[in-house]
What does this fold into?
Amino acid sequence: MTQILKLTINGTSQDIPIDDPRATLLDVLRERIGLTGTKKGCDRGQCGACTVLIDGRRINSCLALALSYDGAEITTVEGLAQGDLLHPVQAAFIEADGFQCGYCTPGQIMSAVALIAEGEAGLDPERVREGMSGNLCRCAAYAGITEAVLKATRAMNREDAA
Amino acid sequence: MNLFEYTRAETLDAAMSAATQDGAILAGGTNLLDLMKIGVISPTRLIDITRLPLHDIEEHDGGLLIGAMVRNADLARHPVILSRFPAVAEALLSGASAQLRNAASTGGNIMQQTRCSYFQDPLSPCNRREPGSGCAAIGGETRNHAILGWTEACIATHPSDLCVALAAYDAVVEIAGPDGLREVPMESFHPLPDANDAGPAPLQSDEIITHIRLPDPGGMARNARYVKLRERTSFAFAIVSAAAALEIQDGRIVQARLALGGVAARPWRARAAEKALAGQPPTEEAFARAADLALEGAAPSGDNRAKITLARRIAIRALIRAAAGTPDRLPALPASVFEGDCNG
Ligand SMILES: Cc1cc2nc3c(=O)[nH]c(=O)nc-3n(C[C@H](O)[C@H](O)[C@H](O)COP(=O)(O)OP(=O)(O)OC[C@H]3O[C@@H](n4cnc5c(N)ncnc54)[C@H](O)[C@@H]3O)c2cc1C
Ligand code: SF4
Ligand code: FES
Ligand code: FES
It folds into this structure.
């Protein structure tokens, strides 16, 4: 039986017919909507490559049954930049050399956006590392990732103050 | 993954009547979908309970009533959890990752399956997955297997961190079924294996956890900690863990709570240790004696004798940290053994 899944993805609302209930949110984003920025690493919640925001909260889209998220607002890495203007977290990843091959990077960036919004890590590198521990990096760009999150936090604090 | 029928329940009654013998409740999906993907379970129907009105945390008589759909991240941030049940917050924050905690529910966390790698491999004999087939873990890789309460039929441990803290705080699991409500203490919610099998399921297929009730912790509110030993400091299951809470007055312990994780098929409440601590001064010697009592009867279920020593040490450390007092802000690395400001 085909069921209609309503999602708002990066600000655009969509009705997506789902005829196989097994689809995860990750599969829907990549294969139905064509948003391939979100990556499939382990497909089992263990690596964070598939991290997206649902109603502003970061989750692993590989363990999210798509039909269960009917009505949700999803933000993927494609929804961060405004035209050519990168999101401060994206800019900071480039500045701080926060990646090598780049496969984990969309997940890292989405996780970092949420971590900064959660507001609990602040500028404490240990809290940043702990808060980012759900995102593995096979290239081990961890030092750059931590630096990027700290840089972005500072930049966004300045923006808020301005 | 097998095909299934998807049903979204709008009421508790609808959820219970949609339940079938080979169906499954879907909450956050972080354990259920994982196990379905690897072919360990293959329910023919998923009953989505995420829309049920079970998302609230209510205060009652100094304690809390926590809806089964409250997400782990929200529970860990609740002001009453942080101020009066800090070992629950620390246990939650030591588990999984920020992403998983945003999806994982309270009920799902309690109902999560063992991480026994033979249970997760459909080709291995496993009495828990397939009653009567045997236990491939015996003689195998037993790092995360039991040292207490096991039998030759199953040596698995329950992997939840949350449950260990809940058991220490005398939490009660509230369950709705077609015949009405029943409640079971967290401490005995997960059945232990018997001589022939891995033990019955904790719930009938048409029963649903609705709430967890936490009674008033009284004088233990600010002397409670969780400590978790794992192979890396974050995003790893416990090898052994301990939740400890103390009420200390005039230099003496009035009441003590101690529960161990990673050691048995349920969170292991150490009642004899608690009793021995009552009336004692909170010293390392008293904690060491209590830890000996907590591990009384422990036996390796394989190549895991070291866990007995490790569990004893983690229990002592949790008690030392509890006696020192819960810090105002949880440490950067929750439940980590690498905590600088404590000589434990
Ligand atoms: C990579 C990874 C690392 C993890 N690390 C940790 C860790 O360190 N510590 C830890 O404690 N946990 C850890 N977890 C496990 C995680 O905590 C659980 O997967 C999660 O809590 C399950 O909650 P859920 O809502 O997603 O449950 P689901 O996956 O939806 O359900 C799990 C089970 O519970 C049943 N169920 C759910 N809700 C109810 C209810 N209200 N009544 C009756 N039955 C119900 C379901 O039918 C299913 O059998 C980890 C998981 C992953 C994937
Ligand atoms: S220990 Fe238990 S869960 Fe693991 S293989 Fe043996 S019977 Fe199965
Ligand atoms: S692909 Fe989802 S966590 Fe690895
Ligand atoms: S940059 Fe290659 S996996 Fe992280």
